[in-house]
Amino acid sequence: MAARGCGGVWRRARQRSAGGPGPGPAPSPRGQRAVACNSRGGAVPAGKSGLAPWIPVVGLEIHAQISSNSKLFSGSQVQFAAPPNSLVSFFDASLPGTLPVLNRRCVEAAVMTGLALNCSINKKSLFDRKHYFYADLPAGYQITQQRVPIAVNGSLSYSLCTDNKMSQMVTKTVRIKQIQLEQDSGKSLHDDTRSQTLVDLNRAGVGLMEVVMEPDMCCGEEAAAAVRELQLILQTLGSSQAVMAEGQLRVDANVSVHHPGEPYGVRTEVKNINSIRFLAKAVDYEIQRQIEELENGGKILNETRAFDSKLGCTVPMRDKEAKQDYRFMPEPNLPPLILYDAKSLPANMNHQQVINIDWIHKRLPDLPSVKREKLVEQYGILPEHSFTLLNEDGLAEFFESVVKQTQMKPKKVIGWILNDLLSYLKQHSLTVEESPVSSFLLADLLNLLERNKISSTAAKLVLAELWKGEGKTPLEIVKEQKLELLQDQKELEQICQAVIDGQENEVIMMVPG
């Protein structure tokens, strides 16, 4: 059983058989515990067993599909779930004589993302060929930016809760090493029944931004929180839709463990994780697996692994390729990518033919961190509530719409949004956009409650009826089910007297003796 220490440090009791050290079994996925990240720094002293603590190290490489109508170097359309091989140009299929033409929109999206992540934008960046051979890569190489990427040296701040109730949040920062433009590969569909592989090149050549995060994280919870914050930023910018279910955001996690004061351990790479929840599980499992392997006398291989979501564990895929295996070389068909700012832009240059970094910077929207601050300041809600509002697509807009239409104070409205509406949505696996209860209907209901027309209990009953989506208004439901609060004392006395008169046998008259 693993114990979590300060600042991402692990300690575990060594279990050895009487026959001496030897490789032990991988941790059981079903018995695996989530790794709780600690907000405090520093190493934990060794326990009674004398074992030094373990420090997990996690770095991420995130591939985000750029939101663009066409591919990075060709005019082929980008569309999810199109018929196989229906969106493939001659260049995408790597026919002889075809040349790449850089997509301006993809460059602007990368610059925008780099600025939002506090990166330095390189005014001159280069394209390279990364060679590897696979059926879904017709050219035998990928065009990327290995030497001089478009953006470098950024940072991403993210927050995570220190308890299950989200009553305390801690903010951490991960360094961004670089952001590079590159083209996606096609998709191989393996048919084990017929022992064949089918290739779909619709995705081949689609523009990607690879965001490389430094190994500044120590557990699955931190990795998941960082990716979720990046996802929100990309969606806010519009540079990527970042829908993980559609493969628009894929994560590779590099994981290693070491003792304090020692060099980083041998790392493994867990490839193509397509869910934030699976990312947290994959990283935590891999940390536990490596610690158990090392403490049982085994060695960690520098390999590529995959996460099996059904079994809840990582499985080997292949040996990790060294950098020289890719045989990087400059892309001969693309000149250096030159960007400008207000100072370097020539006076006689057509502004529509160049990309101005300062022009893009001025048009950046409010990022999620700014939106949260505004929600807290404007409506007086708790900081942790602002995180929930932004983490659910469309929920912040729904909340603000309700607030504008009701007389109830925002602090009360947030309770109905998070405790009642959101629980209904999660119970039925619906998004905010799919909710049968509109912001107008909820505001109408809360107005009845605020004017003391109904009780809080009755309001919950009305909300349950609204959820059925039968087209009734809250007031109609209240009248049909007679849920109004009675304010007339004479009317209340008449009702009570009628109840007494109808239950004469049950009523005991107390007469003074």
UniProtKB/TrEMBL annotation:
Domain of life, per lineage: Eukaryota
Region (Disordered): 1-35
GO molecular function, one term: transferase activity
Domain Asn/Gln amidotransferase: 397-511
Name recorded for this polypeptide: GATB amidotransferase
UniProt xrefs under SUPFAM superfamilies: GatB/YqeY motif, Glutamine synthetase/guanido kinase
Highest classification ranks of the organism: Eukaryota, Metazoa, Chordata, Craniata, Vertebrata
Gene name for this UniProt entry: Gatb
Reactions catalysed according to its record: L-glutamyl-tRNA(Gln) + L-glutamine + ATP + H2O = L-glutaminyl-tRNA(Gln) + L-glutamate + ADP + phosphate + H(+)
InterPro entries: Asn/Gln-tRNA_amidoTrfase_suB/E, Asn/Gln-tRNA_Trfase_suB/E_cat, Asn/Gln_amidotransferase, Asn/Gln_tRNA_amidoTrase-B-like, GatB, Gln_synth/guanido_kin_cat_dom
Recorded family membership: Belongs to the GatB/GatE family. GatB subfamily.
One GO cellular component term noted in the UniProt record for this chain: mitochondrion
HAMAP family per record: GatB (MF_00121)
NCBIfam families referenced in this protein's UniProt entry, alphabetically: gatB, PRK05477.1-2, PRK05477.1-4
Keyword list, A-Z: ATP-binding, Ligase, Nucleotide-binding, Protein biosynthesis, Transferase
Listed SMART domains: GatB_Yqey
A Pfam entry, by short name: GatB_Yqey
